[in-house]
Each structure stands twice: as C-alpha cells, then as structure tokens.
Design goal:
Blueprint lengths: L4 H11 L3 H13 L3 H24 L12 H6 L8 H18 L15 H12 L4 H21 L4 H4 L5 H15 L4 H14 L16 H20 L8 H14 L11 H11 L1
Length: 281
C-alpha cells in the first residue's frame, strides 16, 4: 500500500472516496483484518490519547531525570495568553501528552514515542471545537496512519536514521493530512498539507539532552502540532505545493541521511552537547 501517497490520493479521488476509506480498505485486503476491527483498534488508541492528555494536565508531572518539571500543568493553568482559544488547547495538549510519555505514562507512539503529543494535540482540540464525533476521529487516525506508512516506506520514521524531521516532522505531516480530511478538504489537498508540513521542518536535527526524549523533544511536539495546523489551513485555502508529497517525503529521507551522526539521536551534538558543556562548568 505504502509506496506512493500521490498515487493513493489520485485513486481515492477517482473512486470518489476519502483517503481514510482507501486506507482501511487496503489494510483489510493486505492484513485480512476486517475494517471494522481496525476501527476498533484505532478507537482504543484514541482513548489512550485522551487519558494521556488528562494525566498530563491535571497535576504537575516530574520525570526521573528532572528535565520535566510540571511544564504542561503550569501552561494549562496559566492565565496569560497571546493567542488563546484553540491554539492554546493545542499547545497544552502537546505538552501534556509528551510529558506523560517522559514520566513513563501510557501513550500512543504516533508514529514514535518522542513525537506522541502531536496527533492528539491536533485532533482532540479540533474535535471539541468543531463537534466532531469519535467516529470522525477514527477516520482521522486512519488517514494519519496512511500518511505515516508512506513516510516509513519512502523515507524513515526514526530519529536515529533521519533526525527529528523524521519523527516530529512525520507526526506533523500525518496530523496535517488528517486535519484536511476532518475539515472536509479535497482528497488531493491532503498531499499538499503533508508536503507543507514536512517542508517546514526539513533538516530538523535529533539532539536529545541526556539521550532522553524530553529536551528539546517535548517543545518540538508543540512545534509539530502548530505546524500541522498551519499546513492544513494553507492546503484548505487552496495553496498548492510546488513539489508533490512523494517528492518531499523522499527528500526528507535524503536530507536525513546527509545529517551527521552527531545530529541523529546520538546525543553527541546540538543541544545535547551544549547541555553537557554547561553541566561541566
């Protein structure tokens, strides 16, 4: 299934079905698992996302490393806002879920643990703002999964292979595509949203402090969620990417291979190195 997002979107358009429908049909055909069973599994993951969001917001969380110290709770309960509304809910959710992961809570790797906050940060607040049902969100997760499978096939989802662009970048692209479908966009606008989201973070390195997905990873979940919102909005407005989704995904993979090993999850470069130097002072 996962060889070309462009071809899959074109096929969905030709058949006049949603991308999520195509994903579910293809998964059923390839795995033998009925589409309804796949939906039930996605619904179960949706519940985990909600639980992670709640756990990360209702009390301050502190990781064993000390690098997480109640940031999500502090943000969620701060009265000072610049934008507010949906934007602030997206930020709060990204922080909460990512901190829940850092504190050994239960999360959904979407597509990885280090990028777990992005999909729920986009889908859950948008569902609340626009009265979307759980059935809608399951379709959104199926759409996101289809995008992720293509990225895994044409490039990588691993920070060790491709830097943070492959983790938070992929999650952002998955969320952007799902948003377009959930907001009633045209099928091929999903491809433009995916391309925008990935292009915006191309070259993003993976440099976790102390080798843990806490600093700068948690805040990059916020970046990925906000990036997904902007990418989806541009696509829904009719903006078109000059490069197709497939081309951008392949380029992301090539850029990842070009990154030095020190910037691919080894904690030997970037902020990880700067933090070690600071501790030695």
């Amino acid at each position: 299934m996962a060889q070309s997002l462009d071809k899959q979107l074109a096929a969905a358009k030709q058949r006049n079905i949603t991308f999520s429908q195509l994903v579910l049909e293809t998964e059923e055909k390839e795995t033998g698992v009925p589409a309804e069973e796949i939906k039930k599994k996605l619904a179960a993951r949706l519940l985990v996302m909600r639980q992670a969001r709640r756990e990360g917001r209702e009390k301050p969380l502190f990781s064993r490393s000390g690098l997480v110290a109640g940031g999500a709770y502090a943000y969620a309960n701060c009265g000072k806002r610049i934008v507010g509304g949906l934007f602030s809910e997206v930020v709060a959710t990204a922080l909460a879920v990512a901190e829940e992961n850092a504190c050994m809570g239960k999360i959904v790797a979407a597509p990885t643990a280090g990028s777990c906050g992005i999909l729920p940060a986009v889908l859950l607040p948008v569902a609340e703002a626009y009265a979307l049902t759980d059935a809608d969100l399951v379709q959104g997760l199926a759409c996101a999964a289809g995008v992720g499978l293509v990225i895994e096939s044409l490039a990588t989802l691993s920070g060790a292979e491709g830097g943070c662009q492959a983790e938070c970048g992929a999650a952002s692209a998955m969320a952007a595509g799902a948003l377009v479908e959930l907001r009633g966009g045209e099928v091929q606008q999903i491809g433009h949203a995916v391309a925008f989201a990935l292009k915006n973070v191309l070259g993003l390195v993976c440099d976790p402090v102390e080798g843990l997905v806490e600093i700068p990873c948690i805040k990059r979940n916020v970046l990925g969620a906000v990036n997904a919102l902007s990418a989806a909005e541009m696509a829904l407005a009719g903006l078109r990417s000059a490069l197709s989704a497939d081309e951008v995904i392949k380029t992301m993979g090539q850029v990842g291979k070009a990154l030095p090993e020190s910037l691919r999850e080894t904690s030997r470069g970037g902020l990880a190195l700067a933090y070690r130097k600071l501790k030695r002072q």
